[in-house]
Each structure stands twice: as structure tokens, then as C-alpha cells.
């Protein structure tokens, strides 16, 4: 039972008191006894249902809570930066948790979609970026609920902008474009772009390869680390994204490209030397590769293709060859098969496609060339 009572004060007001589960007493004064009783009933219900929040907890600001919560988290540096970027982009870091409302979140989401330049509105962040920042901030709010800092998550039910469908947003380069881009690249970077197109490696994963990661006899390579750019221009070597450490089985042709690259651009006896070299003895980082990619695009006369689109090109080739979801997931280093499906479901043949292909096979079996 919750210890509580209401007393009428000499001035005619009503004092409502209760003790919380820790034994601390709380009190408020009301002009009407009914209001005092309603407040006590609300507090009692929150305590009984496990949703009680001590009043002092709600006075902590969103920003201060984030700092204390973030200090307890085990995050990769990139995750820590992304979380801080999201939180610092909000206009309510100084708002007490108890005062946060859904309207705060909705206004912030709307502001991210448009940028005020003084003369009307201009396009803001992409829907995918807005969603990522929202989810990061929501993680903080959900943690606050679990820590009994707030009773409920004010971001619940907030409408987010719709992103483009994968089949519309994805730009799949043609085989001719891929060839033109690789051939137009500066010689030391052709193998880098080939790794994206024919092994599906992310930029940071390809940059983090050592010569010893390539098994030429077994026609495979090991993704064991990634390179990220640090503030100030340096590089940071760390483990791949969660679930992305993997072995990729490569074609003979790609193995030959890598062997020629090592012979011409990275000769030596140290098996652990970087496959690609940036500044000094470091592997290249994002700025270097992006610069080389833009030069290759200009030289090849190909526009609208991102380096990451070569990874999509690789995935589409696996799917066209009949690889199942799990095979593609493992080759790309997705943590979950659902990620693979959400990204590439439109590339897998539908039931109608399989029916037509099977029927075409029957026609060819019966009539041969005459079936045409």
C-alpha cells in the first residue's frame, strides 16, 4: 500500500502527501480537495503499475541525462559520434525530461527536413538521415524510461518522412559503366574499385585490407578490420561493423587483379603491409578514396554513380546467379538477413518470373530452337 493522506490547512487549501517506494515524502497543495485526491490517485496508479518517476528525476535535462547515460555505454567511436551528433542537433537539450512533449520531437523532425535561409525554406536533410538521427535520440528517451527518469517516451507515434522505395532509390550501374570507371581510375586505385564491384566491400573495409588477408590459393579474402577517418585527417583502424567480419570468396579474375596490384604498387616481403597506401605508412581514408572516385567518374564520363553503388552491383550479380538470401547476407556482411531483404528484395525473381522461366525451359526442351 502507498502511504498517503490529505489535510486541510488553516488557509483553506488542501495538502496532499505520500511516501514513494524509497520512503521519501512528497507533498503538494491544492485549492480543491478533489484535485488533491486526483493527484494522489494518479501517483498511486503509477507506483502500482511500475511507472512511477520521482519528481527530482524529471528535473534533469535531456542533455544532462544523455551525458550520464552515454558514459555507461560500450560504443564504437563512430557510434559515439553519431549519437552525439543526433543529440546536439536537437533544440531541447536544456529541457527537463518531465517537460519534454511529443510536440518537441515533431518540431525537431520538421526542422531537419527544411533549412531556413532567410528567404523561405530550402531542402534539408534526406529522409534516411532524419530517420537515423531520430532513432538515435529515441534510444536515449527509451533508456530514460527504463531508468525511471520519465514515465513514457515522448517520441512514441511521431510520424517520420517516407524514404524512397529501394527499387526506385537504388542506382545499379551497368557492366559498361563499371568497366569504364575501373579503367579510367588511376592505376593504384583500380584494384580498390574492383573490390567494391566484384567482392562487395565497403570503402572502409577495402582500405583496411592487408596483403596477408588475401588467400590466393583458396581464392578468398578476409574482412577483419575497417578504416575510418579521424578528425584532423588521421585514420582510425577498428573492427568492421557488427556482423561484418567475414570471408569473401572471390573470382579468379579478381584474384589476378589483386596480384597485379601487389606486384606493381605494393611489392615487398612484409605480409602485413597495407594493400593500399595513403599518407605516410597509413592506409587511405575516405577523403582520399572519394577524391580518386570523382576523378575516375570525370575521366570515364560517368555521372550519378556512387562508390557504394558498386556494392549494389555485386549484390545484384549474386542474386541474378541464383544465390539465396543467406548467401548474399554473408557475402555482404549484413548482421541480419532482414537487412539484405529490405535492401535487395526487389532484385530477387518473383513467383511470376520463376514461372515464366520454368515454362520457357519446358518449351526449349520440347521444341528446341523452334520454340523461338
Overall description:
- The longest helix is centred in the middle third of the chain and has 20 residues, at 127-146.
- By secondary structure, the chain is mostly helical.
- Helix content is 49%, strand content 11%.
- The protein has helices at residues 33-48, 55-58, 62-70, 77-88, 102-113, 127-146, 166-169, 175-184, 187-199, 203-207, 252-265, 286-300, 307-320, 325-332, 337-344, 351-367, and strands at residues 4-8, 14-19, 25-30, 114-116, 121-123, 214-215, 220-223, 226-229, 235-238, 246-249.
- It has a three-stranded antiparallel sheet, with helices on one face.
- It has 16 helices and ten strands.
- Helix 9 runs antiparallel to helix 11 (252-265) and helix 14 packs across helix 15 (337-344).
- A hairpin with a 5-residue loop joins strand 1 (4-8) and strand 2.
SSE class: mainly alpha
Shape: elongated
What's the tally of helices?
16
- How large is the radius of gyration? 29 Å
Helix content: 40-55%
Terminal residue distance: 84 Å
**How would you write the strand order of the largest sheet?**
1-2-3
Task: Give the rounded overall mean pLDDT.
Answer: 90
Q: Which percent range describes the beta-strand content?
A: 5-15%
Query: In this structure, how is the largest beta sheet organized?
Result: 3 strands, antiparallel
Oligomer: single chain
Q: How many DSSP E strands?
A: 10
Q: Uncertain segments of ≥5 residues (pLDDT<50)?
A: none
